[in-house]
Amino acid sequence: MLKLITQFIIKPYQFNSKDERRKVIGLHVVFSVGLLYSIVNLILDFTGKSSYDCFPGFVTTFALFFAAFYCLRNARVTCAINMVYLMPIGLYFFFVSKPDAILSIQSTVQQHVLSLVAGLLFLLFFDQRPRKLALFYVVGIASITYHLIEAERIQEAASIIWQRNEYVLNPYFGFTVVFLVLLLFSWKVEFDLKELKSKVSDAEELISNNFRTFKHGLLQVKINRDATGNPTGIHTVSANHAFEALFNVKAREVKNVDAAVIFPKIFRNTFDWHNFFMFPKTNHLEIYLEHMDKWVDLYAHQLEEGSLLCVFKDITDKEKSILSLQQSRIRYKVLLEAIPDLFFIIDSDGIYVDFVMKDSESLDIKPDDIIGNSIFEVGFSENMSRKIYKCIQDSIKKDSIETIEYALDVAKGTMMFEMRIAKLDDNSVISIARDISKRKIAEINLEKAKLKAEEADQLKSAFLANISHEIRTPMNAIIGFSRMLGSSDFDMEEKNRFLDVIISNGKLLMEMINDMISISKIESKQVVVSKKFCKINDLFVELYKDYSMEVSNKPIRLKLSNENANPKFGVSTDRYLLLEIIKKLLDNAIKFTPMGEVEFGYKMISNEKLMFFVKDTGIGIASGDLERIFDRFHQIDNRTTREYEGTGLGLAIAQHYAVLLGGKIEVNSEPNKGSDFHFTIPFEKGEGTLKIVR
């Protein structure tokens, strides 16, 4: 509704700025309200229900507002504003005419002045020119003088404050003060407007120069709309020199022209320009002008409502280069396909970029299985992946040809390949794989045995190295502080603190040794699952008691959430492994929660699944680290001076045990908001599922 009214108001006008539009809308509001007020008062006066009987005044007011509104609807804004100079005619009937005045003319001088002040304010809002205000001031002074003469109070004009129990300012003085204030304000506004117009003019000149000299083609278009705001057509406004050169047109051909005339000549049937500009779904298109053999990038940017600036960038050279590269790629691919070997392009990070191979009954490789994947993800052993990665780095750095042999499992068995890696450029290599299965089957069996022995030896060495590295820190602390206990340089309080350090590092050392033993059992596959009936509530009460003591001197609240309070509630599982998993998760939660709450417990998520969880409000885990926290020896903070100690094995051990119990630990976490670790196990031979209701 408001949109229709606005369209009705602005229909007769062609605005150059938003200020003109707001001015016209404001005048319509003022004159419409004035007309309505006049009509209502005429009706009330005619029916004898008006509080004031001044029929000539209401008729005059109606006539003035009607004339002003008529001028406004005929786009004669100045004429409509100038109707304010006839305002004293209406004031005469309301305040001066003895037969018609609404009150005694001796007591309405101030109302007369206030009405004239309203006229000054009207001019200030809609026509700020000082000479207009001055002219109305003269008309107002004449009107006030006539009023004073008729009221026989002209002799009081010499007094600034009238003393007839009115305590009001002299009308000349008051009207003049208001006029001078508004005049100064008007001058200030006019001065500011001149400065602003000068700045706008300079800015427009700068924009115009940049528009003309911009290196890419620019075209400004305008969307024509009907009274309801629906688009009806397009016309061009202006174009720069680059646009004219790009499309071989003249300036006069694209300046203020209907788009339906010029666009078919420029774009032909390349794209649907009508819908692109009038009903846009995107602001970017890449178009090919076949008649000009050019590729152009088109971006449309909205300047204001209904006005678009289109940027045309010539990308012909780029597209032709891409086409040439594609053709070269096709030729090289055909050439490589004629060779029986397999060709791979691998970047310096070990990611497959491309590959070429002949159709083979033995190999069924899809592009999605290779391209974009790392050499660590496509089926090579960890040892082999490391070797290939090292060969890639050596080939790039030394510009050498590296050779490596590997086995690949396929549908019909195992195939042997010889891989040659040669530098392609500074960031990639070409890998040529040749099938050498027939002459290598005997050797590969021996090589497998050798590699297996070497791998076992490496695992043993890595295990011993990890133990040595992880126990060094707590052992140094224990030895160092033990020596300090025997010194007489420290008092008993300091020695007690040394004892606390020794005990805490002893516990840390014991935890590391236990973790190392557990991971050793996992590596050697010695962990055996022994399932028996386990009372879940008893297990969790035991954990709650143990860990309540641990957090008693910390600002951490421990919360146990048992869904089923039935003491007989339980499930068939390995109690030791389940207990170890919960302990590992609780140790982590307490370690990484400086203060707050750690909640743990269980709940049934179905008749076949029992879920356990440990939640904390600690430091949380970044999304990029969530996938790696279950890796062995992985810690989020790997600095030597890190705040949290540990082997980095706890979560890896817990995850392995969870898998053995038929589940998998999952985690939801946000930095500084805490973490939620949870896993499920099968509800096998469960008992006590009926809950106790109190």
Quick recap:
The protein is 50% helix and 19% strand. The protein is built from 20 helices and 18 strands.
What global shape is seen?
Answer: elongated
* Secondary-structure content class: alpha+beta
Rg measurement, Å = 45 Å
Uncertain residue segments: 637-642
End-to-end CA span? 62 Å
Main beta-sheet strand count, sense and barrel state:
6 strands, antiparallel
Q: Give me the number of helical elements.
A: 20
> Mean of residue pLDDT?
81
Residues in helix, %: 40-55%
Q: What portion of residues belong to β-strands?
A: 15-25%
How are the strands ordered across the major sheet?
3-2-1-6-5-4
List how many beta strands DSSP finds.
Answer: 18
SSE topology sketch:
Elements: H1 2-10, H2 18-47, H3 55-73, H4 77-82, H5 87-96, H6 109-126, H7 130-150, H8 171-213, E1 217-225, E2 231-239, H9 241-247, H10 251-254, E3 257-258, H11 259-267, H12 273-278, E4 284-289, E5 294-304, E6 307-314, H13 316-337, E7 342-347, E8 352-356, H14 367-370, H15 382-398, E9 402-410, E10 413-425, E11 428-435, H16 437-485, H17 492-523, E12 532-535, H18 536-550, E13 556-562, E14 570-573, H19 575-591, E15 596-604, E16 609-616, H20 650-660, E17 666-670, E18 674-682
Parallel strand pairs: 13-15
Antiparallel strand pairs: 1-2, 1-6, 2-3, 4-5, 5-6, 7-8, 7-11, 9-10, 10-11, 12-14, 15-16, 16-18, 17-18
Helix pairs in contact: 2-3, 3-5, 5-6, 5-7, 6-7, 6-8, 7-8, 16-17, 17-20, 19-20
Structure description:
- The protein is an alpha+beta fold.
- Helices cover 50% and strands 19% of the residues.
- It is built from 20 helices and 18 strands.
- The strands form four sheets. A six-stranded antiparallel β-sheet has the order 3-2-1-6-5-4. A five-stranded antiparallel β-sheet has the order 8-7-11-10-9. A five-stranded mixed β-sheet has the order 13-15-16-18-17, covered by helices on one side.
- Strand 15 and strand 16 form a beta hairpin.
- Helix 3 packs antiparallel against helix 5, helix 6 runs antiparallel to helix 7 and helix 6 runs parallel beside helix 8.
- The protein is elongated and about 125 Å long.
